[in-house]
Amino acid sequence: MNLLETKGLGKRFGSVLAVNGVDFSIAKGELKSIIGPNGAGKTTFFNLLTGMFPPSEGQILFKGTDITGSTPEQVAGLGIGRSFQITSIFPELSVFDNVFIPAMRYYPRDQARKKAMEILEDVSLADHAEIMAGNLSHGDKRHLDIAIALTCKAELLLLDEPTSGMPPEESARTTELILKLRNEHGYTIILIEHKMDIVLSISDAITVLNLGFKLAEGTPDEIKSNQEVQKAYLGGLDNSNLHPVAASRRPNAAKGKELLRLEGVNTFYGESHVLHDVSLTVREGEVVTLLGRNGAGKTTTLRTILGLTPPASGTINFNGGRVSGLSPQAIVNQGLSLVPAERRIFANLTLHENLELPFFTKGIPAAEKRDQINQVYQYFPALERRRHNKGNKLSGGEQEMVAIGRALMGRVRLVLLDEPSQGLAPIIVQDVAAIIREINKRGMTILLVEQNALLALDLADRVYVIDKGQIVYEGDAHTLLADRELSRQLLGV
Amino acid sequence: MRQAPTPPSVVMDYLRMGILFAVVAVMPFFIPYVGGYVGLAVEMVIFAIFAIGFDLLLGYTGVLSFGQAAYFGLAGYTMGLVCIHSRVPIVVGMCAGVALGVLAALLIGLMIIRKTGIYFAMLTIAFGQMFFFIASRWKEVTGGEDGLTGIPRTFIELGPLSWNVNNDLSFYYFVFIFFVAATLAKYWLIRSHFGQVLKTIRENEVRAQMVGYNVRRYKLYSFIIAGTYAAVAGVLYAMFLRYMYPQTLDWIRSGNVVIMGLVGGLGTLFGPIVGAGVVTYLMNFTSYYTKYWQFIMGVIFVVFVLFFPRGIWGFVERPDAQTRRGKS
Amino acid sequence: MIFHLTLPTIINQLVNGFALGTLLVLMAVGLTIILGLMRVINFTHGVLYALGAYTVVSLITYTGFWPCLIIAPILLGLLGMGMESALIRRVYVRDPLHTLLLTFGLALMIEDMIRMAWGDAAYPIGTPAILAGVIDLKVVIFSKYRIFVIVFGFLLLTALWYFLERTHLGKTILAGTFDREMVVALGIPINLLFTITFGLGAGLAALAGVLNAPIQGVFPPMGSSILMPCFVVVIIGGMGSFWGAVIGGLVVGVTVSFTVEVFSAASEVIVFVLMAIVLLVRPRGIAGIEGLLE
């Protein structure tokens, strides 16, 4: 009998089906990984299992009993423990108390004390028992997060990106811990991870989710050779666009002057070390694309450039002047703009107003403003018709277009584009891609972050690949596009 | 395998509490030397009881209520009304007052505990204000704006014992007994499993639930306990003044206990006591020199929020310092 | 409770209710936008209202009533901006509880400062001559001043609406209540936006205070007594929503007026009963932004 089983599990948020008819099962003692590109529904799946919200459809069975609709406290009581992607501990309590107090729910006091120390020994935190949890290093905190999940007399562990924000040595230690938990202590483990090397090396089986539904399932080797899976990760292009790559290269692409330079940039989210010594350059007139798997640090790079998450060390220069350490306001006024992945159109303003908004302090004469906005309507004729519609009435594709248009307002020299193809139908993606080409042709420099690698490589002149926060490849875009094996290694499974 | 850390020494804790009790016990005798009087000392201790309970809710559970004065006032008025209109012994009146205060906290808590953050705080104000307006408008029963006069403070009778608490000094020691009980109770609560769970809720409510605790239920219990402390303080206050007035219930009065907690230091055993003492003393002291004590209070508050958010006792010791070592 | 409500009484109370409602709306709109954009629970709103009324007390003998409608909002708007940039800004990064406590402390201070400057007594303020008296329609009698308050308030709200929905600055503020970080990412100076918004809220509160002076007079705790009803309006209408504040204010104003007529002892409590009902049944209020400060 399977320890845990889901049948047709689904969750709807408004009109979005975050998890769609997922059948999943795991037997006692197994270690299964769940992977999938961004927005695949992995964390939502965990949230459903742990009772954070009830499913819209389907069932969850634990040891054969239907536990659908249980509350989180009940789920923990059954022996299902969960660790969190964003570290969730009790910062002002001691490391010992972090584990001891939860344990007291399940054991009498003296036994709980012993049990807590046992758990801390297992995660190698016993030495730190008396330290305030908030003072631990990032890696230790992640281990503590796992330790807390063990306190509920757990049989099943759900580990959500346990190695997130860890450098390779710590990731290796965590991987060892996970294996030890399964091999020596008999825990059954479901793992969400983005680091493919880990996933491929330790999983008994892998389940791939994409856009909420189960795409594939099998052993690591099976998944690796599964074309559908590779396509989900690498993206794809409608055949008509896979024309000889050379034709889409612009003649003046190669040697413009350097416009943006990052050198040795390190960025942290709290203590999570997300970018490690990132260096890259973008020259005027280029399209440079930054690729990588989810969680690699692509969006963080863009946010760091714009000053939303300032770098901890390293320098960023734009147009000859240093911008690292400046406020987003100052950086944007130098000529940078951002198209966020979620678009972030203001729902309470109309389309036209959304386009006008960036002109707040840019001191640009009214005539030029009008021209720029009209230019956007020329790029995207479909938008002009909808200019008086409020932001929340626009479709995904329209929102993307508005977000791009908005980013062109003012004296912009470099646009940071974050995953323009996300959530869009292929035909809209083509339109957007064509516009990106057009904008670039007219002289705009673009740094493009994409998950749809093939699309991006087709658009770009040069490519950087980032993995676990480090730049691991730099080169000519169409060379990488042509080298399928290398693409798969760097970006696929 | 390493041994589990030993819990902090109870001996030290009892010793410190012992010193505290000793200081408070002799306070009526030295307070005149610092410009005070016995009645002021009584007030300081009564509000200390109020603040101790409040701190359990905010400092330990992380729940802000801006309406604790409702239970304080309700209990005081009830005790007053029961004792004025019937011949029952004062002790019975006191129990009635506390019982009603606790009941109110229970009912209101049940109603509002699902809400969090600012919504919860606003609901506590709403209920507090409802009680305030009932107290100030229901003239026939509560005496309205004029207040309820004639609350008896004569003999406390328990079985064969009879204690005349009419004079302020003897009343002080009557209140002192409650203070000792209140402090010890809080100490045992925060060291108990219940208190430990409250801390996890304060630190990370979601995770506390995910490890299996019914967070809502714990918050409700904490709320009721805080209400109980408020009710006890309210009853004692009614007896102290021999009089109850509506302003004891309004949200500014609830705000005072928040100030006491903040100034003293939330999340510590001694903090709220220090805070209540300091704030009550200062309010009294400044009102000798100026009638603008509210201004002084406001300034203190602003200064503390900006520069000393951990409060006075927070300087002396980290909130709930069971950890000894520093950074790893 | 006696339901001897004749038509003239009903109409009269509607007028009173709308007049009171207008004042509440003027204050609640400021409060709700400050909440929506800055996530600040502004307890000083009440004393800013009171200071507006006290401006009338000080200036009325020199300038008469009318100039106060302009002077008070400007003065207090500047004060508000000063308070925000010098003090309140320091606690943004902390637990939202701290802004609540800070503004609460400031309110305590300022209320006593009012007593220091103007004394404890209440000042009655005469209705400006043109608006004194009533409009007698035989069937029903209206207070001229209250009609004025309603009309003026309506015009002001229209101007405010125009400002928010049609001017660039207003739209930027609205955008900020929706997605503050994106406004930052567009290079817009968010600190300046905060200061302006706070000043705007302060000015509106002051204006409400001026308007109220001839109706209720001016007395030191007037700020505390109106603050809670304002929060109630914000909660009923939905935090962060302009129209919610408008509808909420009118609903509360009319409800209070009718309660005064029908069961006057409950007239102060009724706002809280309303609030409790709304919070328990539909916490987002009529039109609130979901998840704000949950």
List keywords for this structure.
heterotrimer, B: 328 residues, mainly alpha, ABC transporter involved in vitamin B12 uptake, BtuC, two-stranded antiparallel sheet, two-stranded antiparallel ribbon, 14 helices, 4 strands, disordered C terminus, C: 294 residues, 11 helices, 71% helix, 2% strand, globular
Description of the molecule:
The complex is a heterotrimer of chains A (493), B (328) and C (294). With 493 residues, chain A is α/β, with parallel strands linked by helices. Chain A contains 19 helices and 20 strands. Chain A has 2 domains: 231 residues, P-loop containing nucleotide triphosphate hydrolases (Rossmann fold, 3-Layer(aba) Sandwich), CATH 3.40.50; 253 residues, P-loop containing nucleotide triphosphate hydrolases (Rossmann fold). A 6-stranded mixed beta sheet of chain A has the order 6-7-8-3-9-10, sandwiched between helices. Chain B has 328 residues and is mostly helical. Chain B has one domain: Orthogonal Bundle (ABC transporter involved in vitamin B12 uptake, BtuC). The C terminus of chain B is likely disordered. Chain C is mainly alpha-helical. Chain C has one domain. Chain C is built from 11 helices and 2 strands, in the order ααααββααααααα. Chain C has a two-stranded antiparallel sheet with strand order 1-2. The longest helix of chain C is centred in the N-terminal third of the chain and has 32 residues. The N and C termini of chain C lie far apart (38 Å). The model of chain C has no long low-confidence stretch (mean pLDDT 88). At the B-C interface, helix 5, helix 11 and helix 13 of B face helix 4, helix 9 and helix 11 of C.
